[in-house]
Specification:
- The strands form 5 sheets. Strands 1, 2, 3, 4, 5, 6, 7, 8, 9, 10 and 11 form an 11-stranded mixed β-sheet that branches.
- The relative contact order is 0.13.
- This protein is of the alpha+beta class and 765 residues long.
- Helix 5 runs parallel beside helix 8 and helix 7 packs parallel to helix 11.
- It has 3 domains: 404 residues, Alkaline Phosphatase, subunit A; 79 residues, Arylsulfatase, C-terminal domain (2-Layer Sandwich); 174 residues, Jelly Rolls (Sandwich).
- It starts with a helix and ends with a helix.
- It is globular.
Amino acid sequence: MTTVARMAQTTRPPFGGKIGRTFDDSTPWWPDLPSAQPGSPNIVVVLLDDVGFAQFGCYGSDIRTPTFDALASGGLRYSNFHTTALCSPTRAALLTGRNHHSNGMGRIANITSGFPGYNAEMSHEDGMISEILVRNGYSTFAVGKWHLTPPHEQQMGAPRARWPLGRGFERYYGFLDGETDQYYPDLVYDNHQVDPPRSPEEGYHLTEDMADKAVLFINDARATNPNKPFFLWFAPGACHSPHQAPKEFIDAYGGQFDKGWDAWREDVFARQLAAGLMPAGTELSDRPPWIPAWDSLTSDECRLYSRMMEVFAGFLTHTDAQVGRIVDHVKSLGEFDNTIFVIMSDNGASAEGGPKGSYNEVFFFNFIPESLEENLKRIDLLGTPDAHNHYPWGWAWAGNTPFKRWKRETHEGGVTDPLIVHWPKGISARGEVRHQYTHAVDLMPTLLDVLKIAPPSEIAGVTQSPIEGVSFANTLAKADAPSKHVTQYFEMFGSRALYHDGWKAVVFHPMANLAYDGSDPNLPFDKDQWELYNIENDRSESRDVASQHPEKLQELIALWWREAEEHQVLPLNNQPGKFGDRRLRRERYEYKPGIGALPRAVAPNLHNRGFRIIAVVDSSGSVNGTICAHGSASAGYAVYVRNNRLHYEHNFVGLHRFVAVANVEVPAGQHRLVVQFTMTGRFKGNVELYYDDLPVGAAEIPMTVPLTYSVAGFTVGYLRGHSVIADEHAPFPFTAGALHRVIVEPEGRTWRDPAREDRAALGTQ
């Protein structure tokens, strides 16, 4: 009986020993433990976030990535590797070998709609490689960003079937959502929320913590079985915003990017051609009109934007160093030669910093304009715990050299990413480049191919869907091996593309209310102007040949529609939040203190509406601490008691804080502490404080956060993360035993702008 079959069966195996009347005349027996084939390699997959094709040193950049460069020089670089253009969809494709719409992950997990390709409820019919390897004698660990669980299931009262430990991983440490603060992360350890082990003042940084846990998990596995291979999925938050790194890594890049994105991009392209990453004859795509020429900027803009790029570079180099620690640890075990290292990114570089970058990207999510003067005042805080920053989109465009566009779009800049494969025992080539067409869905079948593991027809009794990727194992040994991946569709927010046998048809369709290049987001999909490229000799999509080959273009468009029907892409929609999941929304919430932090999807929605928050408190004469809070130092609100007086604080994107304070202390005995907020206009209102029915304070809130506090959760009875309250640190718990329950009652319908809400949700991808 095979290992897979043995692990999948639900009945007890027949006893293979002998049972007599006494122990002495009996023979004990145990079933064989699952074991991998002798000599099976370890596997370490490092999946970076929002890192563009050109941002590793070994892909043409001058950003220092010595760990990645060394793995590339000892292994292979792929120049024609593709993703889905977005985070959750790429992760789903990588782990399952199925296309993102086939997985139900047509968008990020935070944006769902009630159609099979878009509900974010990944089925166990699409088994993950972790579920296969754990049944074939591997230890399996996931560390870092997950972002494959629907938002309403990212809370402690939710089922765990779509958490990492429900998908074949035996250990997990990281964050479930799409983004987190690198100094105050929203952490989960296995199946429960935890706080970081240290503070930023004590030298904490999330990527370092993740490397610590990766080493720990390997050591724990080795302590009981020194020969068991492991599969490590290592997915740092880097280099997604906020761009945050230790100061010495950032300062090491002082002045390096002062020449600007135009000149930097030309230098990178020259190195790509010299290294053979781009075929001879490839052209550098033009700078689009919505990106300003560097020499058109003011000196202040250049100074700010250069520093923002220095912060990003420091973040990437710091991440490379932490992966280097994992590499060194594997070497110390004597297992480096028989460990497969795969290094990649999930999509093209991100333009979500907008044209001018951001000191606090929550401004961008909420459509609040930023001031150059205000950002310059905070230039020395970029990259620190006191900033939530992102670089301007000129650097994202440059980070995808030589391609067009960026993350979220189906031109090559959104879907082409670095891929490094290193395995000394299994790959004889050193430092070579591979140009075969590959896609994220191909990773899983490739790894199973080299491990000689047949994809199972069932996992834990669940019949498996067909794997849609194809193995590129044939390219590991042969530079001239044929590409097996002949056809691949792309779709993201209405933008579409179809690759087929060296040709690519592509069309950009802007998201609703988010067009930045003059395109019409309301244009019917059948009126879109498709482009056509011969990718075999025009990797950068610089020569549109649609007019020369109209028959070929129509052939590919027709093929796109067939692929779309087969893979659950329809219905097309460029309003990603339309028909969103509202199943767990309600109009009255009651909580006990100490519950796990609630994500935005299931927290009370108090944006742009009146509300009432009631805390039932039993005071012996003095109470203190948090009643409830939602948000962080970047934006949010909190209800709390300090100096025995009720407070309400609204943090308007870290720029202004509006506070109402009770004018008398909380009296002894059981009382209802009430915060009543009344709208006086869009995004503003008055707050009144009560003890029972007695008014005790009031304040005007002249501006409220319109759409989102980013990814920080809602807590009751304590704070978590980077405190939303000025001059208070988490956890700031309420007096023990004194807070009985908290009731939140929204009033009226919230003002909504679905397209803007989409932008807020997309900012955390």
